Amino acid sequence: xxxxxxxxxxxxxxxxxxxxxxxxxxxxxxxxxxxxxxxxxxxxxxxxxxxxxxxxxxxxxxxxxxxxxxxxxxxxxxxxxxxxxxxxxxxxxxxxxxxxxxxxxxxxxxxxxxxxxxxxxxxxxxxxxxxxxxxxxxxxxxxxxxxxxxxxxxxxxxxxxxxxxxxxxxxxxxxxxxxxxxxxxxxxxxxxxxxxxxxxxxxxxxxxxxxxxxxxxxxxxxxxxxxxxxxxxxxxxxxxxxxxxxxxxxxxxxxxxxxxxxxxxxxxxxxxxxxxxxxxxxxxxxxxxxxxxxxxxxxxxxxxxxxxxxxxxxxxxxxxxxxxxxxxxxxxxxxxxxxxxxxxxxxxxxxxxxxxxxxxxxxxxxxxxxxxxxxxxxxxxxxxxxxxxxxxxxxxxxxxxxxxxxxxxxxxxxxxxxxxxxxxxxxxxxxxxxxxxxxxxxxxxxxxxxxxxxxxxxxxxxxxxxxxxxxxxxxxxxxxxxxxxxxxxxxxxxxxxxxxxxxxxxxx
Length: 508
Ligand SMILES: [Ca+2]
Ligand SMILES: [Ca+2]
Ligand SMILES: [Ca+2]
Hints:
By secondary structure, the protein is an alpha/beta fold. The chain has helices at residues 20-31, 67-79, 103-111, 155-158, 177-181, 184-187, 245-254, 285-297, 320-338, 436-453, 459-469, 503-506, and strands at residues 56-62, 82-88, 93-98, 115-120, 198-203, 223-227, 230-232, 270-275, 302-305, 315-316, 342-346, 359-363, 370-373, 378-379, 389-394, 413-416, 420-423, 430-433. It has 2 domains: 20-33 and 152-506, Rossmann fold (3-Layer(aba) Sandwich), CATH 3.40.50.200; 56-120, Alpha-Beta Plaits, CATH 3.30.70. Helix content is 24%, strand content 17%. The strands form 5 sheets. Strands 7-6-8-5-9-11-15-16 form an 8-stranded mixed beta sheet, sandwiched between helices. One calcium ion (CA) binds next to loops. Residues 1-35 form the signal peptide.
C-alpha cells in the first residue's frame, strides 16, 4: 500500500489543476512517487517573506471560537499594526491585513491567551488593497505592491482541457449525454428539484441575465468574497468578469427547463452565486472562508467547489503559515456543514494518484513555485477536508478522463467531465468544457435533487446515501491510458470511487 493510505480524512481528494505545463509536471511527480517517503518525512518549507511596507493578508485563529475570544484576537491584530478586514466569530477566525514585517510574531505576543495561530494566506502582497471603509493604520496608497504574475492560463479554472465551442441558441437537450449517464432524465420524471433548495456555486460568478439561468439565480443570497475576503452583496459584485467557468458550472447544476437551450441536473432548484475567484484566477483562503461561512449563514443546502485554494496545491500542517490556513478553512467548512450544507468538490485535473503523491512543483502559484516534498499532512483543500464529496471525471464512454485525478480511498464518486455542454457568458450562449470542474457540479445537482426528495437528511446522511447509491464501475483503462493505473475492487476503486452518481436513486 502507498504511504498515503493513512490520510486523516475519508473524503480526501484534490481540486483541480491547470495548464498543460502543470499537468505534465504533475504526471511526472506521480510517476516517480513510488520512491516513497516515510511517515517521518517533513514537507519542504515555503518561506513567506514579510517586510515593513509590504501589505500582506493573514488568517488569525482564536483558541476558542466565540465572540468574546474573537474580539480579543481583533484587539491583538490592531495592537500589532494590523487592520481587521473581516471577523468570523462563529469560527473564531479573523482576516487581517498588515504592512508590518513582524506582524505574525507580534500578534501572537499581543494575543497572549487568545490567539492560537497566525498564517500568511498568500505569498504575494495583497493586490486588491484593504477595503476602503476600514481605517488602515498606514493610510491609503501604501498598498501598491503587485504580485509577480497572474495565474497562468486562468489556472485551475479553465485549464488546458477546457474549451468552449461557438455559442448557439437552439435547444440542446439532445446533446446532453452527461444527463442520461447519471439518469437525470429519469429522475426528472419524479422531480426537477424543489425551489426551496439552494446550491451555492463557489466559483467565478454566474451570468445574471443568461436566459437559461436568470430565473434560477437566488439573487438575495448571492455574494462576492473577492474583496479581501469580506462579503459584498452589491448588485453586480457576484457577476462574472474575466471567467465564464462559474456560468458553465451553474448550467450543469441548474439550467432552467424553459424550452430553450439545456436542462441542468436540478432545474427546479435555485443557485446562489458565491464569487470566490478574483480577476487573476486566484481563490485565496480568505475568499473561500467567506464563501463557506456565507453558505452556512444563509442556510444553503449544497455547495459546489470546482477549484483548489491558492496559492498552495497542497497545504502542509507542519508549516506554520500553512497550518493556520488549514485550521481556518477547516473551521469554515465544518461550521457550514453543521448548518446543514453538504459540499461537492472536483478531484483535480493533474492525472495524479492522490493516494500516493509525494511532490508538488506548482506551489506557491502567486509568486515563484518551488519543487517540494509533501507528506500525508499536506492536504488539497477544500476537497480533502472531512465530509467533502470528492469527484473524478468520466468520458461519454464511461472511461476515466485522462486528466482526472484518482486515488483509492480518496475519490468518493465519479461523474461526467469530458466535453460537457453548458451555459457560457459569451452571447448568453452555450459551449462545451472538460475537466473535473465539470464533473463536480453533476454531483452537486444530484445532491440538490436528493435534498428536494429528502429534506430532513443531514449532510452526513446525504454523503452516505450518495456513495451507497452510486453505480459500481469496475476498473478499466483510462482514456488514452492516461495516468496511474486503476486499483481496487468493482465496489470502490481508485478511478470511480463508489461508482458513477445516480440521480434517479437520489430522488426515490
Ligand atoms: Ca449575460
Ligand atoms: Ca433550458
Ligand atoms: Ca460502490
